[in-house]
Write a structure and sequence with these properties.
The protein contains five helices and three strands; from the N terminus they run ααβααββα. The protein is mainly alpha-helical. The chain has a three-stranded antiparallel beta sheet with strand order 1-3-2.
């Protein structure tokens, strides 16, 4: 797989999108980020969130700041590169929200046409 396609997959994955959009607002601790993403009506497992954060960190989009305190404190934030990606993803998310009516209408037309061709 081409490297740019792999990064595109990471950025546009189910959880990658939500992580990037949330981190645009501010840095988060792991549990805070998990709760914030859950606010979108989707429950992300700890394992999946950890994998997503690790992947985005490896790609240079997320910064992991582990503070040497007890109990351990780890904050996640966007790098400059991550902020660029997150702004692009947020733009697509906003477009999707704004154009959802047109998408639903197109689906209805398609489904009606498909049902008509199957009967005839």
């Amino acid at each position: 797989m081409c490297p740019y396609r792999l990064v595109l997959e990471h950025v546009t994955s189910r959880w990658g999108v939500l992580v990037l959009i949330e981190l645009l607002d501010r840095p988060y601790r792991f549990s805070e980020l998990r709760r914030a993403i859950g606010g979108f009506g989707r429950e992300v497992s700890e394992k999946m969130l950890a994998q997503t954060l690790q992947t985005l960190e490896r790609d240079g989009l997320v910064h992991r700041d582990a503070k040497p305190v007890i109990p351990p404190r780890v904050d996640y934030s966007l790098t400059d590169l991550g902020r660029e990606a997150a702004e692009q993803v947020r733009g697509l998310a906003l477009w999707t929200e704004e154009r959802m009516g047109a998408v639903l209408e197109a689906r209805e037309v398609y489904d009606a046409r498909k049902a008509g061709s199957e009967q005839g």
